[in-house]
């Protein structure tokens, strides 16, 4: 629908269109003309939506903090699932993974050579020297948040420790590339180049995603992309940065017995950190971590 300059803006801010998103729409139109993949209005989060998503993120962060306080050798991944469920519901949230497309648990716990979607089990005991990714996602008042952290259990090998620390560095590198009116390809390329320089391989088939109003939205975010490709980052676009990085080769496979758990093909360790960000007028705002 064509808006007049004095009409209320489509974003729901209550401001006149000319004072709010008219310049934004003009800029988007020009980038589309140049051939860029420009997000539609349905992907642009309004200030009101961002505020609500932040409330969800506050729960998500608190749950991961709670895991950090309690995780230790000797506990099962099922114990971690219980921690996540109890703390999320105590804070008024709902674990987003629980029942999502049939997923049976409240969190993903990916140990050592598990790339992602490790299903918690009472039979899987965390041991000294393990590395584990705990991927937590929350629904709060209908809004979604998502982030994950790596945990090193006791004394881990130097190569595992470096992998975990370097993947966290790659997140910082990715964040430095989140700038309005540049592309997601710039972000993915910077992450991949850093990881390759350290001798690692980034998983190609799995990436980040839009989030906020739904668990998984557009865009899909690659971390092996080329500069000046993929979707344009514009103010209000929200997504996760979550490279999955392997100590060995990039190839992966899915556990056919459950249809969820992804392993490295060579069974070497993998690590992942995940943050949720929104693009702003001058960079980004970190939403969940």
Task: State the gist of this model.
It is built from 5 helices and 17 strands. The chain is an alpha+beta fold.
Q: State Rg.
A: 20 Å
Total helical segments: 5
Helix share, percent: 25-40%
Distance between the termini: 37 Å
Low-confidence stretches: none
The general outline is globular
Derived structural class: alpha+beta
In sequence order, what are the helices and strands, one letter per element?
HHHEEEEEHEHEEEEEEEEEEE
Oligomer state of the chains in this structure: single chain
Mean pLDDT: 97
Number of strand segments: 17
User: The biggest beta sheet, please?
Assistant: 4 strands, antiparallel
Per DSSP, what share of the residues sits in E-state strands of 2 or more residues? Answer: 15-25%
3D architecture notes:
With 289 residues, this protein is of the alpha+beta class. Helices cover 29% and strands 25% of the residues. The strands form six sheets. Strands 1, 2, 4 and 5 form a four-stranded antiparallel beta sheet that branches. Strands 3-14-13 form a three-stranded antiparallel beta sheet, with no helix packed on it. It has a three-stranded antiparallel beta sheet with strand order 7-12-15, covered by helices on one side. A hairpin with a 6-residue loop joins strand 8 (208-210) and strand 9 (217-221). Helix 2 packs across helix 3 and helix 4 runs antiparallel to helix 5 (184-197). The longest helix is centred in the N-terminal third of the chain and has 24 residues, at 47-70. The mean pLDDT is 97.
């Amino acid at each position: 629908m064509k808006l007049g300059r004095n009409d209320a803006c489509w974003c729901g801010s209550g401001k006149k269109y000319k004072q709010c998103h008219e310049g934004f729409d003009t800029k988007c139109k020009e980038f589309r003309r140049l051939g860029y993949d420009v997000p539609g209005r349905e992907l642009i989060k309004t200030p009101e939506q961002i505020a609500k998503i932040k409330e969800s993120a506050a729960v998500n962060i608190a749950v991961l903090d709670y895991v950090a306080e309690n995780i230790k050798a000797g506990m099962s991944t099922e114990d971690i699932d219980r921690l996540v469920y109890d703390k999320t519901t105590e804070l008024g949230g709902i674990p987003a993974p629980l029942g999502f497309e049939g997923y049976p648990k409240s969190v993903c716990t990916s140990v050592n050579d598990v790339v992602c979607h490790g299903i918690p089990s009472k039979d899987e005991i965390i041991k000294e020297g393990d590395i584990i990714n705990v991927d937590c996602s929350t629904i709060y008042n209908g809004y979604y948040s998502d982030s994950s952290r790596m945990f090193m259990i006791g004394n881990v090998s130097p190569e595992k420790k470096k992998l975990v620390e370097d993947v966290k560095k790659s997140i910082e590198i990715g964040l430095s590339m989140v700038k309005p009116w540049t592309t997601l390809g710039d972000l993915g390329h910077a992450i991949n180049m850093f990881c390759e320089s350290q001798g690692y391989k980034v998983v190609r088939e799995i990436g980040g995603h839009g989030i906020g109003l739904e668990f998984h939205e557009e865009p899909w975010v690659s971390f092996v992309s080329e500069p000046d490709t993929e979707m344009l980052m514009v103010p209000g676009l929200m997504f996760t940065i979550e490279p999955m990085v392997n100590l060995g080769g990039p190839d992966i496979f899915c556990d056919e017995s459950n249809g969820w758990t992804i392993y490295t093909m060579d069974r070497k360790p993998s690590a992942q950190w995940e943050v949720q960000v929104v693009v702003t007028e001058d960079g980004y705002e970190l939403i969940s971590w």
